[in-house]
Design goal:
The complex is a heterodimer of chains A (393) and B (144). Chain A has 393 residues and is of the alpha/beta class. In chain A, 37% of the residues lie in helices and 23% in strands. By secondary structure, chain B is of the alpha/beta class.
Chain lengths: 393, 144
């Protein structure tokens, strides 16, 4: 029933669940040394440099010897671990490609150290290897997650996610090690509450079976933990990924308001591709290699990308205005608060565009600045690691 | 400055926001979403402040608050009630010593400054200072 200033410094998942947790514990005043230590270590980890590695072969996954942060995104899965002098990040493409089972194919896959598993009469090639195969066959990979949530149309979606996670981390050295994974907020345009529940619970089951103690954190809140230590964890964190934009307004590290929209990077690629009659894969490559939203568009593809980026940003800000103005939970905050963006879609000058378009929206709280996370691709995993470190011990 | 607070709010998000603010300012906080347990905690722990959020309260909870403030609350505890003056369940509060009514709007900064104000009303005991050097000098000169 009590709330402990140290052990509950960071909150996780849906505000209601966390708030419930804080009021359902046994009353006790003040903190304790062990809890203080874990929070201090988590805060110290948040200041360490990030070193990232892409996994490109089988059997490279580590057995973690401490808490783990996991970002299960639509396009990538990232695992974060706290090391002596840095935070170690490993990432893998969250995609798969299928080929028919044959002895010959099996031997080739094994000889080339390619990550795959067999289901029925198909080999499922996962991760970056799937991308190579798709390019070889001049087609696209499949994704187990769509719109930020496990895809209902991919029958083996969860198995693929498990296979991808297994390429990043193995079972922990200590049974019951804490792992914190990012989950989306409830989509604003969902039919009703509970859209995220299935996604969250099956991931928890899988991680528990691996030997971890899984906890979840809203992706926007993870961005706040990773980036807003200097602002007392008060501000708006937005994770802009492939399938979703996740928003969290945090007040002194408590997630007061969370929501998501299911339009993000993939929508931009698809719609821009349709507009200029080019394949989505080509648009994505151009976007990642050339696009700069702070400059005027150079050609029709860039123009289409600018247009759909603006559409996504307007959709995001309009919903932010709608949710904040309708909420009776929004605390009055006298000082302007920062907004920090993370994720692949937030790059390429997106934060500057958000700052510019924000002028057109009247929010019930003042925004001091819009900034990009120091490591946009790793911010969610880093925030999840900070949460995992805080909760372990 | 008050050191301890018991916070009751039937809305767990509002309760957590208020608790976070108090904790951020260095107070120790117990948070409850059930009024009877909050009242028990106040009686048992004698905190400096009891914050009672009436937003979303049922009439029974308001009656419990009224009874508690009238009889069971320790004299050293001050109650801050978040609610509207027009609420008929709160009319008993008028002129009640030790109870302050604050708007129900979620304004943690105003809440904290109100609490600060309540405690600054009581004048702090002036510290007894003896300037030993001056005292010694007066002694030496036989002026004391």
């Amino acid at each position: 029933m009590a709330e402990d200033i140290k052990t509950d410094l960071f909150e996780r998942t849906a505000p209601d669940d966390d708030a419930r947790r804080t009021v359902d514990e046994q009353p006790s005043w003040g903190g304790n040394d062990a809890a203080d230590r874990t929070v201090d270590e988590a805060v110290a980890a948040s200041q360490k440099p990030l070193i990232g590695t892409q996994i490109d072969g089988a059997d490279q996954a580590e057995r973690p010897s401490g808490p783990v942060g996991l970002d299960v995104g639509t396009s990538h899965i990232v695992a974060a671990q706290n090391k002596l002098n840095h935070v170690h990040m490993v990432d893998q493409l969250n995609a798969f490609f299928t080929i028919p089972v044959s002895k010959f194919s099996r031997r080739i896959l094994q000889n080339h150290d390619i990550m795959f598993f067999e289901r029925g009469d198909l080999f499922y090639i996962v991760g970056y290897s799937a991308d190579s195969f798709a390019n070889m066959f001049n087609t696209s990979t499949h994704r187990p997650i769509q719109g930020g949530l496990l895809s209902p149309t991919e029958k083996e979606g969860l198995t693929v996610v498990q296979a991808v996670v297994n390429t990043l981390i193995q079972k922990p050295r200590r049974f019951g090690e804490t792992i914190c994974f990012g989950i989306p907020g409830e989509p604003v345009d969902a039919q009703g509450p509970g859209a995220v529940t299935y996604h969250e619970q099956v991931l928890k089951m899988f991680l528990r079976n691996m030997g971890y103690t899984p906890i979840s954190i809203n992706e926007g809140m993870a961005t706040v933990l990773a980036e807003l230590a200097g602002d007392d964890y008060t501000g708006i964190g937005i994770s802009m990924g492939g399938g979703m934009c996740n928003v969290c307004l945090s007040y002194l590290s408590f997630p007061v308001i969370t929501f998501s929209i299911q339009t993000a990077g993939d929508y931009i690629d698809r719609m821009a591709g349709l507009a200029v009659a080019e394949p989505t894969t080509k648009i994505k490559v151009i976007k990642e290699a050339e696009l700069d939203l702070t400059r005027d568009p150079a050609d029709s593809i860039h123009t289409a990308l600018h247009i759909y980026y603006d559409e996504v940003i307007h959709h995001l800000l309009k919903n932010l205005q709608r949710v904040l103005t309708a909420s009776d939970k929004l605390p009055k905050i006298s000082k302007p608060i920062p907004m920090v963006l993370s994720g692949g879609t937030a790059m390429r000058g997106c934060h500057a565009r958000v700052a510019k378009l924000l002028d057109r929206y009247r929010l019930p709280i003042e925004i001091s600045e819009v900034r990009l996370a120091a490591d946009p691709l790793y911010a969610t995993a880093k925030g999840a690691l900070i949460m995992a470190m805080t909760e372990s011990g | 400055m008050p050191k301890t607070a018991v916070v009751f709010s039937p809305d767990v998000i509002r309760g957590n926001v208020m608790s976070r603010k108090m904790q951020h300012e260095g107070m120790e906080v117990l948070l409850f979403d059930r009024a009877c347990q909050a009242a028990e905690a106040v009686a048992a722990n004698r905190p400096s402040i009891f914050i009672f959020d009436t937003c979303g309260c049922i009439p029974e909870e308001l009656r419990l608050l009224s009874r508690f403030c009238a009889s069971d609350m320790n004299a050293s505890t001050r109650a801050v009630v978040l609610g509207e003056d027009a609420n008929p369940g709160l009319t008993w509060m008028r002129d009640r010593e030790g109870v302050t009514l604050l708007s129900a709007a979620l304004d943690p900064e105003l809440l904290f400054s109100t609490i600060q104000g309540l405690f600054s009303l009581a004048p702090p005991a002036a510290p007894v200072e003896t300037d030993s050097l001056e005292h010694d000098l007066k002694d030496f000169l036989r002026l004391s």
